[in-house]
Design brief:
Layout: E1 4-7, H1 13-24, E2 28-33, H2 37-49, E3 54-58, H3 67-82, E4 87-92, H4 107-128, E5 132-141, H5 154-174, E6 180-186, H6 197-200, H7 202-210, H8 220-230, E7 242-245
Parallel strand pairs: 1-2, 1-4, 2-3, 4-5, 5-6, 6-7
Helix pairs in contact: 1-2, 1-8, 4-5
């Protein structure tokens, strides 16, 4: 049976690449977007061009009040598009970055990071559990910044550290249903994260490339296929792991 994966933040960046990689592996996708409806529909069209099915649904992961309506929309899409009442995989990718020194980080910046990356992941996953199939997969996005430190990312890294701990607890508590839960931690990647700083600023790009064993910064195509592989049956015995996909950054 064809698998159905929910990928949050699937309209751009690593989420987009993950959604496309899942489709290339023969899966169907429900992807979410916050504002970029046009980008999301472009991903849906690209997936359809591969002969797979996809649906785009609006969701602000940081707004927990919106979660019940989103779950209802997922139930509706499952029934109308697939004739099913469950899905198979959840990829908690949606997020954003804030770069500010520890002494300068505001409470508003801190709260937004934790609302999106921790609270949103916690309660969205919780709300989707009744329609996540037994034997399913959950992948939470973390960051290489939980292992090494760079000035300006204390709040962001703390939020991602919380995601890694949450991953272990999810794996323990959902294991009885055969559900695996893992965290993928990318290193520096050429996306529009922080306004495309790594992608568009040669000095940043070269600096991160110089500290990476494989000699360059990452690209979205380095991450999406790794996530898609974790969702497959060959990795059914991998759970509660933090898997860094960074090309050997800072080793």
């Amino acid at each position: 049976m064809t698998t159905i994966s929910i990928v949050t933040g699937g309209s751009r960046g690593l989420g987009r690449n993950t959604a496309l990689s899942i489709a290339r592996h023969g899966g169907d996708v429900i992807l979410t977007y916050r504002n970029g409806a046009q980008g999301a529909e472009a991903v849906v069209a690209e997936i359809a061009g591969m002969g797979r099915k996809a649906v785009a649904l609006q969701l602000d992961v940081g707004d927990t009040a919106a979660i019940p309506g989103f779950v209802a929309a997922v139930r509706s899409a499952l029934g109308s598009t697939w004739g099913r009442d469950t899905f198979d995989h959840l990829v908690n990718n949606a997020g954003h970055g804030e770069m500010a020194g520890f002494a300068e980080t505001t409470e508003a910046q801190f709260d937004l990071l934790f609302d999106v990356h921790v609270k949103g992941v916690f309660f969205l996953t919780q709300a989707l559990l009744p329609i996540l199939a037994d034997g399913g997969r959950i992948v939470n996005f973390s960051s290489g910044l939980t292992r090494v430190s760079y000035p300006g990312f204390s709040a962001y890294a703390a939020a991602k550290g919380a995601v890694e701990i949450l991953t272990v607890y999810m794996a323990k508590e959902l294991g009885s249903r055969g559900i695996t839960v893992n965290a993928v931690a990318p290193g520096a990647i050429e996306t529009d994260f922080l306004g495309g700083a790594v992608r568009d600023t040669p000095a940043y790009n070269e600096a991160f490339a110089s500290m990476t064993a494989l000699g360059r910064v990452g690209r979205p195509d380095d991450i999406g296929p790794a996530v898609a592989s974790l969702l497959g049956p060959a990795n059914r015995w991998v759970t509660a792991q933090r898997i860094e996909v960074s090309g050997g950054q800072n080793i």
